[in-house]
Amino acid sequence: MQVQRAAIGRPSAFAGRRMAVRATAVTTRPSVSGRMAELKAQKKIAFIPFLCAGDPDLETTAVALQKLDALGADVIELGVPYSDPLADGPVIHSAATRALQKGATLDAVVAMVAEVSPQLKAPLVLFTYFNPILRKGVDKFCQQIKEAGASGLLVPDIPLEETGTVRAACERAGLELVLLVTPTTPKQRMADIARASQGFVYLVSVTGVTGVQERVQARVEGLIDLLHSVTDKSIAVGFGVSRPEQARQIVEWGAEGVICGSALVRALGEAETPAEGLAAMEQLAKSLRDAIPQ
Amino acid sequence: MFAQQQSVLARTNAAAHSAQRVAPVSRPCRRPRAVTVLGAALTDAPQEVQKFERPDSTGRFGRFGGDEGIKLRKYVPETLIPALAELEVAYKQAMDDPDFHAELNAILKDYVGRETPLYYAERLEDGSMPEIYLKREDLNHTGAHKINNALGQALLCKRMGKTRIIAETGAGQHGVATATVCARLGLSCIVYMGAKDMERQALNVFRMRLMGAEVRPVYMGTATLKDATSEAIRDWVTNVESTHYILGSAAGPHPYPMLVRDFQSVIGRETRAQCQAKWGGKPDIVLACVGGGSNAMGIFNEFVDDEDVRLIGVEAGGEGVETEKHAATLTKGTPGVLHGSFSFLLQDADGQVIDPHSISAGLDYPGIGPEHAFLKDVGRAEYFAVTDAEALEAFQRLSQVRGP
């Protein structure tokens, strides 16, 4: 861990530092859609872990991102902590609250991403609620995260009708905007969302918020089929996926990607020490990675 | 009970303030007449073309939201979009159905006890103030205006064939109103309430449980109204296929701000008729307290197009708007998104929501209904803040001359 920390520079200085502009990162970071297409061509399934930035602290997040990348994460979702995360259950809500208490501001998160992203193979998708984007300025936000090395953006509280401005800003900045479909989304709307989604189509496996579920609902199989019938884009399934057997089930049902969030966030953030958290997170991530064909 | 008194005092205090801050507008030959809402309440939709069209066909109120070309109306997870669309359709159908109006009006009359009196508070007179009339929403069944909206939405819920109701509550007035209409209509009811508010408002928790509602404590964040609302939305996302969410304020994603306003606008309609009957005219000033803004929208809505009627909203100033402990969203907030709508918001430089403060449970909400933001933006309504201390003082004064 010490070695990895050294590799990313001065992690303790993330908080409050202005983000450095890294022109090289902008040109060399892989796109989400490119990575998904590559995997599809090789008949591989994407493993997409999610972490909440700043929990337990930004230094640990930086190390965790590298560990996930090293063990074979294909795309990494990074959550920017928000005070009122409507789409998140208690695990990620608590993680975000802890992260904010530790000073994980948007600028600090972006600075950390700028430091770490050049060393990651996996494209990064930033997951954040709309209000912080609006507050920063939609264009400015998109430019800053792109310059820091993010490849995509996911905003859980903007449904299709509200994506116009964010999508335009993403296009100007060179980011891909990932959209979500859910079990309540009607077929025609699924088609519209899939057409507009970039990188992949995020299929929410539950009616509900993020969190660990006992098992994946049987209707997910039908939802994957339905979504496949309206789009050629890769489908990644998330919300409630926490165990290898769930990941295997989703792969059997034909998804091109498996997203795991709350269980990893819990492993990392609820441990006694950052080192124990990293070890627990890494063990769980490996077991998920091993369950998904690569 | 205490909540109700608090909202009373906020309004009353505002009334006292209007005397100091609001110079008599016109007709210097007599003192102005001010009407203020007593008890907590909301409104009803425009029946004809108005000067201020609210909301437009996409659910926006002026730049709230249409700011900078952004279409702002439903900032919620995708899961809820079909339910919001269904609600919009059901509402429109209900509004076009005379049977719905007949049923609603009959229950408002015989069960809720409408119309509520417009009472001239003559003992508040000292010659220096406007003549103050109190619109007695506190005399509704359950003690607040909240039941106007809860009832309307519960009837909509039955039309949509849903049997499970959820609600958020701050002071407990909306929770009690919702529990009451659910008991009346045979719907199952779950109310989310901040753990701190459950302590402050224990009697209302008892009342809700007495009527068969389940009250679920919310411990996250400040354990008050904001977090209760977030938790109710999370429940709705999870159980949307069987559940209707009776949102209690003129806030949230479209169509809620419109729908809640419309169900509360009975307050303003009655007030106009009562003013006409009492003195053959209109009030010079209409004044109401604003938390999320439902009772204020309920009375403002009727008078928005009467430019000779001043509309004044009074926010909870807590320990003072110059301190960090207040809930004066329109006075001190900035444009932002909370609980599905774009409006003013108490937030920090990073767009994180700031924890509000008010001595009154329920007024400590960091957001505000988007139509109030619109009315402020276009200069149609004025908004002031009064402190906890000022509100308490006015409450005592009102109690002593009127009986609480």
TrEMBL record, chain A:
Self-association and partners: Tetramer of two alpha and two beta chains.
Family designation: Belongs to the TrpA family.
Origin: domain of life: Eukaryota
PROSITE patterns: TRP_SYNTHASE_ALPHA (PS00167)
A Pfam cross-reference name: Trp_syntA
Catalytic activity: (1S,2R)-1-C-(indol-3-yl)glycerol 3-phosphate + L-serine = D-glyceraldehyde 3-phosphate + L-tryptophan + H2O
Molecular function via GO: tryptophan synthase activity
Protein name: Tryptophan synthase alpha chain
Keywords: Amino-acid biosynthesis, Aromatic amino acid biosynthesis, Lyase, Tryptophan biosynthesis
A GO cellular component entry from the record: cytosol
EC number of this enzyme: 4.2.1.20
InterPro entries linked to this entry: Aldolase_TIM, RibuloseP-bd_barrel, Trp_synthase_alpha_AS, Trp_synthase_suA
Species assigned in the record: Monoraphidium neglectum
NCBIfam families in alphabetical order: trpA
Pathway per the UniProt entry: Amino-acid biosynthesis; L-tryptophan biosynthesis; L-tryptophan from chorismate: step 5/5
Transmembrane segments: none
From TrEMBL, chain B:
Database matches in Pfam families: PALP (PF00291)
Keyword list, A-Z: Amino-acid biosynthesis, Aromatic amino acid biosynthesis, Lyase, Pyridoxal phosphate, Tryptophan biosynthesis
Enzyme class of the recorded protein, top EC level: lyase
Pathway note: Amino-acid biosynthesis; L-tryptophan biosynthesis; L-tryptophan from chorismate: step 5/5
Catalytic activity: (1S,2R)-1-C-(indol-3-yl)glycerol 3-phosphate + L-serine = D-glyceraldehyde 3-phosphate + L-tryptophan + H2O
Cofactor: pyridoxal 5'-phosphate
Listed GO CC annotations: cytoplasm
Residue ranges constituting the Tryptophan synthase beta chain-like PALP domain according to the UniProt record: 113-401
The organism's place on the tree of life at top rank: Eukaryota
One MF annotation (Gene Ontology) recorded for this entry: tryptophan synthase activity
Cited CDD domains: Trp-synth_B (cd06446)
PROSITE patterns reported in the protein's UniProt record: TRP_SYNTHASE_BETA
InterPro entries from the UniProt entry: Trp_synth_b_CS (IPR006653), Trp_synth_beta (IPR006654), Trp_synth_beta/beta-like (IPR023026), TrpB-like_PALP (IPR001926), TrpB-like_PALP_sf (IPR036052)
HAMAP family for this protein: Trp_synth_beta (MF_00133)
Protein name as catalogued: Tryptophan synthase
